[in-house]
Amino acid sequence: KQEVTQIPAALSVPEGENLVLNCSFTDSAIYNLQWFRQDPGKGLTSLLLIQSSQREQTSGRLNASLDKSSGRSTLYIAASQPGDSATYLCAVMMGGYQKVTFGTGTKLQVIP
Amino acid sequence: GAVVSQHPSWVICKSGTSVKIECRSLDFQATTMFWYRQFPKQSLMLMATSNEGSKATYEQGVEKDKFLINHASLTLSTLTVTSAHPEDSSFYICSARYRGNDEQYFGPGTRLTVT
Prior knowledge:
Distance between the termini of chain A: 41 Å
Structural class of chain B: mainly beta
Number of strands of chain A: 11
Number of strands of chain B: 11
Order of helices and strands of chain A: EEEEEEEEEEE
Helix content of chain B: under 10%
Shape of chain B: globular
Strand content of chain B: over 45%
Helix content of chain A: under 10%
Number of helices of chain A: 0
Largest interface: A-B, 24 and 24 residues
Number of helices of chain B: 0
Oligomer: heterodimer
Radius of gyration of chain B: 13 Å
């Protein structure tokens, strides 16, 4: 059974700092990994998707890396802004039935 | 970009009634749709995977007779919570997998409150 863990569970940083969110998974035979953000009481917004054959993806101030062999992914946020405050979730998709397992989430607060 | 809608966005119903939630991919075809449930301050839990034209695959512990899923077309999936009880109150989110790039696009969610 795939288990996905995110560390830290919560993070508070001053505006402008660069930060790294971590995601680890127990079964490395993944199909892809996706990072989302969720604002309180809202749905999910897709940030980045990394296919199993890729090592990283970039979008603006965000960079996500994937190391399948070690079962890890990181989301790097450069020059953080108060608008980045949200809960960040990673989700791992397996092959076959395409089952997706979500991580436990990291709640980020960027202080002005 | 790919958009997934859900209707209704929130619903309050009485215990014992049934509630239907719709999930639509507005500008793309989705061969696979997923239904998730999220409890307060917790992550999303996959309930079931549905492929167009076939029966849904339910996760362990999810009652298929309680949560009826129908994937009638490439753009529409419905989740019906039958004989709802207060413990069914939750945030339900669907997603649709875009055939072109495998990315999942999520709906805005439906908040169900059973009184």
